[in-house]
Amino acid sequence: MKKQFHILLVDDDNSIRFVLNELILDLGHQVTQVSCAEEAIEKLNQLTIDLVISDVRMSGKSGIELLEFCQQNFPDLPLIIMTAHSDLDSAVSAYQKGAYEYLPKPFDLDEVVTIIEKALQSTQTNDSPPTQVDENNPFLIIGESPAMQDLYRAIGRLSNSHVTVLIHGESGTGKELVAKALHQHSPRKNAPFIALNMAAIPKDLIESELFGHEKGSFTGASNRYFGRFEQADNGTLFLDEIGDMPLETQTRLLRVLSEGAFYRIGSTQPTSVNVRIVAATHQDLLKKVELGEFREDLYHRLNVIPLRLPPLRKRPDDIPLLAKYFLQQIAKEINEPQKQLNPESIAIMQRYQWPGNVRQLENVCRWLSVMANSQQIFPQDLPPELISQHQQVEPEQWSQMLSNQIINGYQKGETQILLKIQQKIEKILIESALIITQGKKVEASKILGWGRNTLSRKLKELANAKK
Ligand SMILES: Nc1ncnc2c1ncn2[C@@H]1O[C@H](COP(=O)(O)OP(=O)(O)OP(=O)(O)O)[C@@H](O)[C@H]1O
């Protein structure tokens, strides 16, 4: 028979407690529910609890304080932290203060079940979590999509380790940002973070850049140069675009990784270093291995922990957050009021494919901050590449969507559906005309078959409707 465990549920939100209570009972375990950390401490002192699941923000003591109490008094008791604030900082601090797991709200119930079962198993195997505390995070990583939450968890879990990490992701997805965050949340955070992009330097200079050289070791080597490995001693070396590393350099790198030492070019004395490698690639390295362009042994050596950064088009929910963040940062930078995206503009941005990922979004926000005429950014203000893609909607798709909306409206008993749709269509016609004419109202009114005054009046009506 399955062992029954006793779980303490701490949350001031009745509905969350209700859902979790049902779920845990269904799993065949016993539950005690409380609504604050103080009551939880009382229960912990009275009962034998196997697992605590706690919210962070509650009146009185916080979930993190409860976690600290458990660490001191019941160090083997696993605690799962739940929080509605799913950012990198909360995840790292929960893990570093000893949380067994970190669960961003709203959560997926299947995932909760898996985590609870795993935590309960750990009470039998004593699979204890990390304990060191790290407060620092200057690199803001924005995003709340499930893929980003997985990433925050991974960074949190790796935060006490020196393990080699290989970050996979298209260009502009934030690989360097993640590499910096890994460093900043590691025991090496007070030592240097040094980056080298294999694609950005001539191939014949890569070895000297990495390993350094002695004075006079080749033409142009007028001084001794300490390479990136030595610069990164005790810290992290970020090898970006590792797929572009020449084969001979790969062989040398492999040797350094296994021996922890190398020779500066022109030197006969080995130099020892203690460097953590974080590498990144936008290429399919396994394919390069197959083609004989990348050493398989090096691939496995680097790919100890693979982290995958999803392209931006796969996490459209993060786009409004990221855009708002960039518009805010850029406004500060150029000392101008912050521009706001109107809902249609956001919708267009969420449908766009973003081949340049977050970097492209950042650039678009920069462009908009400087170029958009008004405070509100309307679809016609968006750069042409976003708009031309936006226009490629399948006709069957939009008529189906319209029909769904109409049926929905009828079912809700709406009476002005035709008027609403006419207004919507008129709005689309106006916006499209302005897109095509890049905002030139005289030309747009010609396309629409209206007089200029009519267009101005309609635009005013639209602007008033938005207020
Ligand atoms: N999640 C994010 N939150 C905030 N800023 C981000 C995020 N992801 C990327 N950025 C920003 O986007 C830009 C590109 O990120 P980064 O240089 O880390 O990408 P990359 O994957 O290393 O690109 P490449 O492969 O082209 O070198 C940077 O300015 C970075 O700060």
UniProtKB/TrEMBL annotation:
Pfam family, one: Sigma54_activat
Residue ranges that the Swiss-Prot or TrEMBL entry lists as coiled coil: none
InterPro entries noted in UniProt: AAA+_ATPase, AAA_lid_NorR, CheY-like_superfamily, Homeodomain-like_sf, HTH_Fis, P-loop_NTPase, Sig_transdc_resp-reg_receiver, Sigma_54_int
Entry keywords, A to Z: Activator, ATP-binding, Cytoplasm, DNA-binding, Nitrogen fixation, Nucleotide-binding, Phosphoprotein, Repressor, Transcription, Transcription regulation, Two-component regulatory system
Signal peptide boundaries: none
Residue span, Sigma-54 factor interaction domain: 141-370
Residues recorded with modification 4-aspartylphosphate: D55
Subcellular location: Cytoplasm
Protein's UniProt keywords contain Transferase: no
Residue ranges annotated for the Response regulatory domain, each copy included: 6-120
Known role: Member of the two-component regulatory system NtrB/NtrC, which controls expression of the nitrogen-regulated (ntr) genes in response to nitrogen limitation. Phosphorylated NtrC binds directly to DNA and stimulates the formation of open promoter-sigma54-RNA polymerase complexes.
Designated name of the protein: DNA-binding transcriptional regulator NtrC
